[in-house]
Amino acid sequence: MCRNLSKMILVFLFLTLSGLIFLLRKIHTVENWNCHTISALYHLQSRIQSSSAAVNLPAFYHNRTFCARLGQRPSPEDELEERYLLDLISWPGPPSHSASIALRQTSNPTHSLFTILPTNGGREWHVGDQLEALVQMHDFQGRPKRYGGDFLLARLHSPEFGAGVAGKVLDHRNGFYSALFPLLWEGPAQVEVTMVHSSEAVAVLRQLREQRPDRVYFKSLFRLGFLSETTVCNMCLPSDQQPLCNYSDLHTGEPWYCYKPKLLSCDTRINHAKGGYLKRLITNKEAMLFQSDVNIKVHIRASGPDKIDVFPSRKEGAEFESGSMKPEADNNLETSGFYYEESWRPLNSIAMQQFNDSSAITQCLANKLINMYGDSTVRQWFEYLVASAPELKEFNLHSPKNVGPFMAVDGTHNILLKYRCHGPPIRFSTVMSSELRYVSNELNGLSGGPDTVVVLSVWAHFSTFPVEVYIRRLRHIRRAVVQLLERAPGTVIVIRSANLQALDQEVSLYNSDWYSLQLDEVLRAMFRGLDVLLVDAWQMSVAHHSPHALHPPPVIVKSMMDVFLSYVCPEKKRS
Question: How many contiguous H segments (helices) and E segments (strands) does the chain have?
Answer without folding.
Answer: 15, 27
